[in-house]
Amino acid sequence: MEIFQTIWNALISENEFFIKLNAIPSIFLEACLYMLMFLTLLKIESTKKQQIIFVVVFSIISIFNTFFGIAPYNNLVNVLAMPVLVLLIFKTSVLKAVLSQVIVFIIVVLVSTISITIYSTILQVPSSASLTVPIHKICISLLLYLGLYTIYKLCKKFNINISLLDKLKKRITFLLVLNFAIGTIAIGTEYYLLFKYIDFMPNALVFFSLFVLSLYFGISLYSLLRTNKLEITAQSLEDQKMHNKTLNTLYDNIRGFKHDFNNIVQAIGGYLSADNLEGLRAYYKDLLEECQINNNLAVLNPELINNPAIYSLLADKYYKAEKASIKLNLEVMADLTNLNIKVYELSRILGVLLDNSLEAAAKCENKLVNVIFRNDKKHNKVLIIIQNTYINKNINIDRIFEKGYSSKKDDTSNQKHGLGLWEIKKYLEKNTNLDLYTTKNDEFFTQQFEIYN
């Protein structure tokens, strides 16, 4: 009984050792809750391995700062550690890494302030006791964890999240980060003053301060969502503009075919009446190429290429190829809405491969690029095959992924290709479900990019 009495006395009196001892399991629990919240709210894709690594590393840093850190710098280290770990472990954008800390910080401040206020008001306990008396610290922590978990479950159930674009304009990104940084400092200062003087402040003033903090949080999120919506709308308008251009070109070509149809038939009849099969074959080949152009334009359709990022990229490269007199053939035989790859990474990889193929084909007499999207259901993957004609048949396909590799020392375009393929190699090493196979023959240089589902 004496042991239990001793433990109880330690729990109800100021005891720094018990506070630090309790911090160890609390830190692991907090790391899990923080991670679940920012993964859900920011729609960050992750694996179990990444989640475990984050919780363990962040907890170790926090525990080290708790026992050996110097106040208040230990708290600053924890604040900086989260976005850095999110950036390194989850491979997300800088903006999302910063927001992971800011959003969690704001929610924790609000929930913890409410928890402390309610607990102190009901039990008539000084707020300072929540930091120094173990039993009060544990109870308030449990209220905080319950509140955070409830918010997480509500966000998950009602699909509440911030669907940020993977790549915002630099100016917008800077303004968003600056806005949230200033807001975090303001909220942190307000929280410190509120917590320090909560025992001397009327409850009405406490809840008014909470209302102001909540209002700022709501307005900030609303502004962020509006900015994101404007970016999506602008991108959608660009896609529609590109599609309208495609439809106009396709309409003009079909009108031309309709107008010349009688002439086409007469020409075919002339070759047949003269029994000139060689001439008919040549004429048919030219006619088929003209039909292929219309087929490609028909493929450039947002409903068929049902991934806005890929559609915009392909449409842009198609018209660039057209200006350079490069024949670009498209085949889309896959659903592109649910690819197991981040949109930003896919855009970077496709952009490099298409640019390289267009530049290589532009140097050939037969300027030809084939782009094929198709499903490989047997192996549960999507194939993106890019073929192009090329001049340098001696190119070393085993070395093209080396940084700055060039088949000709004075060929600056090859230098650029080497850098681009080197960047792709980093994405391949980071994602285990991506592969890229390079082959060549006398006619085509081929890159086969594979995305496993």
Structure description:
- The protein is α+β, with helices and mostly antiparallel strands and 453 residues long.
- It is built from 13 helices and five strands.
- The chain has helices at residues 2-12, 16-41, 48-68, 73-89, 94-123, 129-132, 134-157, 170-196, 203-273, 277-299, 308-323, 343-362, 412-430; strands at residues 327-333, 368-376, 381-388, 434-440, 445-452.
- The protein has a five-stranded mixed β-sheet.
Task: Give me the secondary-structure topology.
Blueprint: H1 2-12, H2 16-41, H3 48-68, H4 73-89, H5 94-123, H6 129-132, H7 134-157, H8 170-196, H9 203-273, H10 277-299, H11 308-323, E1 327-333, H12 343-362, E2 368-376, E3 381-388, H13 412-430, E4 434-440, E5 445-452
Parallel strand pairs: 1-2
Antiparallel strand pairs: 2-3, 3-5, 4-5
